[in-house]
Amino acid sequence: MRGRLLLFLSASQLHAQVMTGGKITVRHEFGNSNEGREAFTAFLQTAKYPSYLLADLIEEDFRLETIPHLSGRNRKALLQRKFDQYYRGTLFRQATLLQRQKTGRRDDEMLFSALTNMALVIPWLEIMQAQHIPLAGIYSVPQVSTPLLGDYFPDHLLLISWEKSAGLRQSFFNKNRLQISRLTPVSAGASFQDTVAKELGRTCQYLKSLSLLPEGQVLDVRIIGHRDDLAELQSRLPADADIRYDLADIEEVAGQIKLDFNFIDSDANQIFLHVLAAKPPKTHYAQTVHMHDFTLWQLRHILNRLSGAVLVGSLLWGTTNIILSNDTVNASEALRIQTQIALNEAQQITQALPGTRIPAADMKTSVSIMRRLDKYPSTPQAILKPVSMVLDHFPQIELNNFDWRMNGSGPDTNDAAVSTGQIPDTGTTITIKASLHGFVGDYRAALAYLDRFQRELGATGYQVTVMNRPLDVSSGGTITDQREAPEKALDFSLQLIRKTSV
User: Fold this and answer.
1) Domains of the chain (ranges plus CATH)?
2) Given pLDDT bands bounded at 50, 70 and 90, which one contains residue 471?
3) What does pTM read for this prediction?
C-alpha cells in the first residue's frame, strides 16, 4: 500500500499522520519529551513511508538581500559566505530567489531563511534516520503558504492563520513573494479572536519600521479561520483606511484545495499539510545527509518501475506473437477447406504464384536475430541491485550521477560471430560519480572510507577502477591545506566492470 507520512512540528509536540489515496488513515500526537519520542519510535515501525516534515517554530529567521547575479561555483561560494555570515550555528538554512531585477546590473533579490534552533528538530530526525524513514525534505509553514493567498494578487498582503499547537502565524507577501513571517505563541486561555485583534496592529507597525509597507500603501489582510470565530472577530478588527480585510472561511479554503476534512475550530495545520503533500516546494531546509534514505528509496523505485516496464513489454511481445500465430492457423484452415472444395482452381492458382519455399538467406537472418535476442544480458534490476545494497552500508556517500551500459554482444554484433557462436563475453560497465560527506578536514578517514567502499563493491563481483579521487595523493599531485574548503569538494568517480560468460 502506497502512502505518505506527513509530520507537523511545533515547539511542544509532533503531529504525525499517514495519508493514503488523498485521505488521512492514521493520526497521532507525540509530546516533546522522552516518552513522546519513544512513542514516535514505536509508531514508525508501522509507518515506513516517504515523509515530509513541516515545521512551525518561532525560531525561524528571514533576511532579504540583493546579491550579484552569478552562476556555477561563484554563486555557490557567495551563498555559502552569506550562510556563514547569518546562520553559522545551524544546518537548516536555505536561499530562495525571489526575482531578478529588470534594471541596472539586474541583480538577484534573495530571501535567506533558517531554523535557528536545531535542538527542536534534530531529536526527531535522529529517530527517523535510525528507522531508515525516507525523508523528502524539511519545510516551514511560510514556505507552503503561497497557494492560500487567494485568486487576487495585491502588492502587499498579510496572511494570518492559527495553528493550535504552535500559535498565530503572520506571513507578509509582496506581489506573492514571501518577505517575512512571524509566529506568536498563544497564551493559555487566549482565543484566536483575542490574539488576532491584539497582534494585527503590532505587525502593521513592524512592517512599516522595516520599510516593507510604504506610508499610505493599502495592506490587504487575509485571515483564515472558522466561520464562527470570524463572525466574532469582524467587529473587533481595527478600523483603518489603509487596511483591507478578507475573512476566509477555513472550510471554503479547504474546498478550494480539494481537502475533505471536518473543521471544528480555526486550527489550520491540516490546510498546510495538504498543500505540502499536493505540491512540495523545491527549496527546503533538509541537508543531503538527512535525505540519504529518500535517495535510496527513489533509486529502488526507479529500478522497480524499469523492471516492470521490461516485463510488460515482454508480455505484449509474446501476446502479439500468439495472436499472429492464431491468425495464421485460421487462415491456413480456411485455405485448406477452400482447397478441398475447389481443388482444380487452387492448383491453377498455386502454379501461377511464386515458390513459397523460404530462401536460405532468410532462414539465416531469422536464426541470427533469435541468437542475438538470446544473448542479451540480465534485467537492469539484477545488474544494479548489488550496487544499491552496497550503497545502503555507506550513508556518508552521496550519489551524484549513475551511468551504466552493456558490453560485448548486442545489436552491433556481426552476423558471422552469431552464426559461428564466437560471441565475446557480455558484460556491464557502471560509472558512479559521488561525494563524501562528514569528513571536513579529515582526508585520511575519507580515503579509508572510500577504500572500504571499493573493497565491498569488489566483493560483489565487480572490477573497480578509480577514475577520480577526492584527494590527489599521487607523486604528481599537489597537496594543500584545504581545512576551510567546503565539504562538497570531496567528489570522486568509480568505474565498475562485471563480465558474464555466455
Assistant:
1) 4-59+117-294 (no CATH), 377-502 (3.30.1360.100)
2) confident
3) 0.61
